[in-house]
Amino acid sequence: MIINALNSGGSVFMADFEDSNTPSWRNQLDGQINLYDAVRNAISYQHPTTKKEYTLNKETAVLKVRPRGWHLPEKHVLIHNEPTSGSLFDFGLFIYHNAKALKDKGTGPYFYLPKLQNAEEAKLWAEVFEYTEERL
């Protein structure tokens, strides 16, 4: 649960959209919704049996997002009838919906980029970041 992870006392929590997530459409969207709510301190949960309430502490771990690797597609979003990159989908959705809110809180969007294979992939990410920064 993201609430417990952010409240763990650790300095950083990494929301992983690859290895620790089954990349179903529902999981991908629920993960993004949870991050959106967490960034805004608007996430809570009540256990159905115990009725215990879970909310974010005033001070939480820094949020880092791990998008899927370049090799994983997002088959539910097509560009020219081809699945888009899971990496770009995860990154784009998070940055679009959360960059301003994070900046307003005095922090920023942080990413862990999985399984970079070569300098070309690193350069591609650098171009994605540069393009995004110019438009935020």
Mean pLDDT: 95
Strand order of the largest sheet: 1-4-7
Alpha plus pi helix count: 4
Radius of gyration: 16 Å
For the sheet with most strands, the description reads: 3 strands, parallel
Distance between the termini: 30 Å
Uncertain runs: none
- Please trace the helix and strand order, writing H or E for each element: HEHEEEEEHEH
Q: Any idea what the shape is?
A: globular
Helix content: 40-55%
Beta-strand share of residues: 15-25%
Structural class: alpha/beta
Tally of DSSP β-strands: 7
Number of domains: 1
Explain briefly what this protein structure is.
InterPro entries: Malate_synth_sf, Malate_synthA, Malate_synthase_TIM, MS_N_TIM-barrel_dom. Residues 63-135 form the Malate synthase TIM barrel domain. The protein is an alpha/beta fold and 136 residues long.
Give the secondary structure arrangement, pairings included:
Blueprint: H1 2-6, E1 12-16, H2 25-39, E2 44-46, E3 53-55, E4 62-66, E5 73-79, E6 82-85, H3 86-104, E7 110-111, H4 119-135
Parallel strand pairs: 1-4, 4-7
Antiparallel strand pairs: 2-3, 5-6
Helix pairs in contact: 2-3
